[in-house]
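Human: You know discrete backbone vocabularies at least as well as I do. Show me how you would write down a chain together with its backbone fold. No explanation is needed for now; the record alone will do.

Assistant:
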Amino acid sequence: MIKIDKEFEIYHQLSKSFFSMIVKLSSFTEGTLELKDAPKENRDIKINEFMRMVEVTSAAQNALYENAAFIPKDIFEQYDVIYSKANDLFWLYEKRMQEYAFKKLDFDALVTDEDKAVIKEIEKEFSSVNAKLREYLSTLSIVE
């Protein structure tokens, strides 16, 4: 396998896993906000969706840190900032889901407007790292 193929594979894996993580965080956030006035049985769907968020967040973490040595420092750092913000939000949601499960928190408090703003920041930073990555990939040359 030539070097450029391996790098493309790494960046494809990173992009795909981070996109999945961001989509799941975003859909959990938006979906929870939309369910505030829904019947309780519809709200329970969020627990299953949260469990899927665990999987995609873990996959993004693994894709980033397993390949850390092969990613240029500036691109790694940008991905790491995105991951850190997403991970912080994930753990905040986990805490709130626990409190909701033990009836210490109302459903309406699972997601806040501030959470929605963090998602927008993450999406903007993901677009930025993708632009930087496209620029970097355009400079690669074939090495056998």
